[in-house]
């Protein structure tokens, strides 16, 4: 166990592994300690928790109130990602700790992956690829899939990413409606106040709402039944938003047609029941994972820290 050196530099605790280019940029500017390198992180925090000004984490690794309490001198958190469901913002506010995140730079890539999953599930691209690879084609044709152009797209959540997905959909002549707590002013897409009505209307439901307690299991058995046996589900938000057990059952019994999933209830564990289904396309939480977008996110993480240590204010605050 080593205490961080270089007392003249701001001391950052890094929750775990991050993009290598970001780790290099952090080390070039600050005295950085990676908590996940410690054999006994709890003992390390007990001995050195008071040494750190800043905490660097990600939307997936987060920062809970217990960890925050182990860092009594902490002044700033810089998170790699837009999701805030794993960061205890109330605890940070109560302590006067600023929280920076990376909005605006990942909307396009998350929307692109949502569309990739939508196209793949409806047109059965991955299933057709498996069909060709296992040599099944000579024995007979691959079955029919579903037309995407002109289909009805229901968006659950209509923030920056939801609106970007809607723009992608216009290129496919899709009809788009959305469900959110409040209608978005100035949008050409109709707001649907009832999630069940949206699911019943849609051919494909794309979930892009925030995670956390308020949206836990929003997509439940009743919503899946409203989507129906011809309907598809795509989730690029958080696994917690979908009742995964209800989803597995709906897929196994053909009560919905298929699903494209980038996020899961207990990542990185993906239930065997989902992996066994040919009607499901699975990706390992990679919606923002392009070189360009991850670098832009890394730049925001650094921007937030530099702005805080220079001006006392992160550039992109999760608290405003
Ligand atoms: C990043 C995400 O996943 O921004 C988010 O909320 O879930 C992803 O963009 C992820 O934080 C990388 O660890």
From TrEMBL:
NADP recorded as keyword: yes
Residue ranges of domain D-isomer specific 2-hydroxyacid dehydrogenase NAD-binding in the record: 115-287
Start and end residues of each D-isomer specific 2-hydroxyacid dehydrogenase catalytic domain: 39-314
SUPFAM superfamilies per the UniProt record, alphabetical: Formate/glycerate dehydrogenase catalytic domain-like, NAD(P)-binding Rossmann-fold domains
Domain of life of the organism encoding this protein: Bacteria
InterPro entries for the chain: D-isomer_2-hydroxyacid_DH, D-isomer_2_OHA_DH_cat_dom, D-isomer_DH_NAD-bd, NAD(P)-bd_dom_sf
Pfam family, one: 2-Hacid_dh_C
Cellular component, GO annotation: cytosol
GO molecular function: glyoxylate reductase (NADPH) activity; hydroxypyruvate reductase [NAD(P)H] activity; NAD binding
Keywords assigned: NAD, NADP, Oxidoreductase
Entry keyword annotation includes Oxidoreductase: yes
Family under the similarity heading: Belongs to the D-isomer specific 2-hydroxyacid dehydrogenase family.
PANTHER family attached to this UniProt entry: 2-HYDROXYACID DEHYDROGENASE YGL185C-RELATED, 2-HYDROXYACID DEHYDROGENASE-RELATED
Entry protein name: D-isomer specific 2-hydroxyacid dehydrogenase NAD-binding protein
